[in-house]
Specification:
2 copies of one chain form a homodimer. With about 260 residues, chain A is α+β, with helices and mostly antiparallel strands. The first copy, chain A, folds into 2 domains: about 60 residues, Arc Repressor Mutant, subunit A (Orthogonal Bundle), CATH 1.10.10.10; about 170 residues, Chorismate lyase-like (Chorismate lyase), CATH 3.40.1410.10. Helix content of chain A is about 30%, strand content about 30%. Chain A has a 6-stranded antiparallel sheet with strand order 4-5-6-9-8-7. A two-stranded antiparallel ribbon of chain A has the order 1-2. In chain A, a hairpin with a 5-residue loop joins strand 8 and strand 9. In chain A, helix 1 packs across helix 3. The two termini of chain A are about 40 Å apart. At the A-B interface, strand 7, helix 9 and strand 10 of A face strand 7, helix 9 and strand 10 of B. Strand 10 of chain A pairs antiparallel with strand 7 of chain B, so a sheet runs across the interface. Chain A binds a DNA duplex (19 and 19 nucleotides) through helix 3.
DNA sequence: TAGTGGTCTAGACCACCAT
DNA sequence: TGGTGGTCTAGACCACTAT
């Protein structure tokens, strides 16, 4: 398995370091030799050693820490989110929101912050899925930040048609109370019966990199979630942006014949 | 919305270019000024202009093409894969595999190449899901490459317990015939009834970057798919690795009450 | 052949961190 | 304070693409 351009000094050095990491010689958490030491030992300029490290960081194998050194990235345990997290049984047995239930299950501490609730114009993809006017202030927008052990792991922007949310706690209160969001929807006549989740991945924007403290070489999962009620009506759309090194999705579905 | 470190020359230049791209002044496909021109115009060294471009490439906004220039990345249409692609109805109405059906639907040309069929030791996560011995040569491994208009878009490695595949076409033939893989499983007594898909994202390995021709700043979706039959038995596990700029997943599921 | 990106050098100074 | 990564400079040569 030859790496690309084995004859280039930066690639050769990256290759050697990669081997040391994947073989376990440099285990997760280990500190790499400093850029200056690598350069001297391999007879290259410091910038060349730096380029080698950049390649590894881009692959997600190492992370650099200013003033401390470069370290082999630790394997982080994934928070797994499955479709069963929306079930009423889960909701009622724990009294927790889907997110809190999963984090608690892993013995970690969950925190959710609702940072804003506004009435606004929906993005086109959201308007399409909700079947609302994409040009009027027809939705309530709720922005939620999700933390595990005080580390930010996800952001979720929920859009609810004004027709549904207007006048209810959904449009006014950050606190959702027992059973959380979906219990309130059910009281309003919308029981979540079907979920649709459209998943893709991409590199984070500069804002997301900052807000979620995404390390170099880590993408985000971009999940467009739609909640559909017993009448087939889409009553809520949420765009989740999740650090891909800390989150995974776990879907289990019947196959229609 | 301040970018990080607005006072650094490379970040300032990256910021200006980013604005030009997101505002539409530099539309998808547009060519950026050359590194040397950017450097001269902004009074910085060429390496600094280069660093600005690297930042944008890392975000997935531009791609550099050796000898040609740096271009604003075109928005690519996503191939969308939903769970309904496994249904017998879809299979029988089109006679196509799930992949071919989706690509055809978009008016593109599908090609699937089965590059190897071997009997081997399964990876631990696969063995776990199949309930087979992780230390013996207990599975058939099939490697498939998926193309759309001759561009590689996915790889799938399918593992099937030897107990199920042994002696059948699944263990010997690259061609699956009408109705594809799942029709053959059904003939062997395993009708796909439930699918489980565990999804995460990461940066591609050097091999994947080469094999899938993944551009800079594009992650891959890593999907561990399990096919489960009418008796609740896992009869097949496939690890899909998909270019995230060309593929999306679209799940629609009932919520158990 | 001219222009582009890709790599490399050998320095310099700054910012951060541990001691 | 000394060692670390982060950024920048001003060159050089190579590899690729278009003309």
């Amino acid at each position: 398995m030859q790496p690309t351009d084995a004859q280039l000094p930066s690639r050769r050095l990256a290759h050697q370091l990669r081997e040391a990491i994947t073989s376990g010689e440099l285990p997760p958490g280990a500190k790499l030799p400093s850029e200056r030491v690598l350069a001297a030992e391999h007879g290259v300029a410091r910038n060349t050693a730096r380029e080698a490290i950049r390649l590894l960081a881009e692959e997600g194998l190492v992370t650099a820490s200013h003033g401390r050194g470069v370290f082999v990235r630790e394997k982080r345990r994934l928070l797994r989110f499955g479709s069963e997290r929306y079930s009423r049984t889960t909701r009622e047995s724990t009294g927790l929101s889907p997110y809190r239930a999963e984090v608690a299950r892993q013995g970690r501490t969950a925190r959710v912050e609702c940072t804003s609730i506004t009435r606004t114009v929906p993005p086109v993809d959201v308007a399409e899925r909700l079947g609302v006017d994409p040009e009027s202030e027809s939705v309530v927008r709720r922005e939620n930040w999700y933390y595990a052990d005080d580390e930010p792991v996800q952001v979720g922007i929920t859009y609810i048609p004004w027709e549904i949310a207007g006048g209810s706690v959904l449009a006014t209160s950050a606190q959702m109370g027992k059973g959380s969001l979906y219990a309130r929807f059910e009281e309003l006549g919308h029981a979540i019966t079907t979920v649709r989740e459209e998943v893709t991945a991409r590199m984070p924007t500069p804002e997301e990199t900052r807000g979620l403290a995404v390390p170099d070489g880590v993408p985000v999962l971009d999940v467009l979630h739609t909640g559909i009620d017993q009448d087939g009506r889409a009553f809520e759309v949420t765009r989740f942006v999740m650090r891909a090194d800390l989150n995974g999705l776990d879907y289990r579905m019947p196959v229609e014949q």
